[in-house]
C-alpha cells in the first residue's frame, strides 16, 4: 500500500495540531512518525486509518497500482494503539475466532499457531479481562502484525511490555515487514529502530501567532 498526503492539516477546535503535511509513504517501507507527547502522532495515524477526519488536505491510497477508495481502506489495514480496546468478555480463543472472522491472518496462519507465536499457549481459555497489561499488549500486537494487511499502523507498540516483550515485538515485526507499509508512532528508539525512514511531526506544527 502507498499512502500520499497532500497539504494535510488537523485542527481540534481552534488549535492546529499540524498543517501543510505533504508526504508519500511508499509500499514495502517502514516509517517512524516521531514527536514529543501531544505532538500529533496518534492523530496522524488515526486519520490514515480512517478513524478520524483531516481538517484540510487530501489523502490517497494505492495498492498494486490501483486506487483504493477511502471506504475500503479498512480492509487492507491493521492498527494497534493504546486507546483501542479488546473484548474483555472473550477468552483468548474466542477473541481470535472473532477477530479472524473479519480479518484473516497472514499466510493462512491458524489461530492456534498465532497463540504459539504470541507465547500465550497457557492462556487459551483465559478471559481477556484476566490478562496482565503486558499480555493484552502482546495480544493486540499479535492481532495487528499477523493480520493479512498491507498497511500496518503501530501506535506506541511497546506500551506495557517488559524487556522480553520488547524483544518479542522486535523479532515478530521484523519477520513480518516484507512487502508492507509499516508506520510506527513513537518516541522510543527500540520501537522504531527497524524503520527505514523518519517523519518528524513537529516539522508541520504551526507557530502560535506573535512568535
Ligand atoms: N478528540 C480531541 N479533541 C481535542 N483535542 C484533541 C483530541 N485528540 C487529541 N487532541 C489534542 O491533539 C494534540 C495531539 O494529540 P495526539 O494524541 O495526536 O499526540 P501524540 O503525539 O500521539 O501524543 P502521545 O505521545 O502523548 O501519545 C494534543 O494536544 C491533544 O490534546
UniProtKB/TrEMBL annotation:
The keyword Transport applies. It comes from Pontibacter mangrovi. It comes from the Bacteria. Keywords: ATP-binding, Nucleotide-binding, Transport. It holds the Pfam family ABC_tran. Residues 3-211 form the ABC transporter domain. This is ATP-binding cassette domain-containing protein. One of its GO terms (molecular function) is ATP hydrolysis activity.
Amino acid at each position: 500500500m502507498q499512502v500520499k498526503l497532500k497539504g494535510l492539516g488537523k485542527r481540534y477546535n481552534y488549535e492546529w495540531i499540524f498543517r501543510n503535511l505533504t508526504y508519500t509513504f511508499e509500499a514495502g517501507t517502514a516509517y517512524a512518525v516521531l514527536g514529543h507527547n501531544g505532538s500529533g502522532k496518534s492523530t496522524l495515524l488515526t486519520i490514515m486509518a480512517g478513524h478520524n477526519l483531516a481538517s484540510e488536505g487530501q489523502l490517497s491510497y494505492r495498492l498494486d497500482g490501483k486506487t483504493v477508495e477511502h471506504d475500503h481502506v479498512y480492509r487492507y489495514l491493521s492498527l494497534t494503539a493504546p486507546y483501542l480496546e479488546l473484548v474483555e468478555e472473550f477468552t483468548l480463543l474466542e477473541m481470535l475466532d472473532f477477530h479472524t472472522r473479519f480479518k484473516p491472518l497472514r499466510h493462512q496462519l491458524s489461530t492456534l499457531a498465532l497463540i504459539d507465536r504470541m507465547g500465550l499457549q497457557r492462556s487459551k481459555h483465559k478471559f481477556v479481562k484476566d490478562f496482565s497489561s503486558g499480555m493484552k499488549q502482546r495480544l493486540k500486537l499479535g492481532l495487528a502484525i499477523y493480520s493479512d494487511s498491507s498497511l500496518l499502523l503501530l501506535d506506541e507498540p511497546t506500551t506495557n511490555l517488559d524487556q522480553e516483550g520488547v524483544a518479542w515485538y522486535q523479532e515478530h515485526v521484523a519477520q513480518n515487514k516484507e512487502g508492507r507499509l509499516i508506520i510506527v508512532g513513537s518516541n522510543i528508539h527500540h520501537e522504531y529502530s527497524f524503520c527505514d525512514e523518519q517523519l518528524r511531526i513537529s516539522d508541520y506544527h504551526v507557530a502560535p501567532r506573535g512568535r
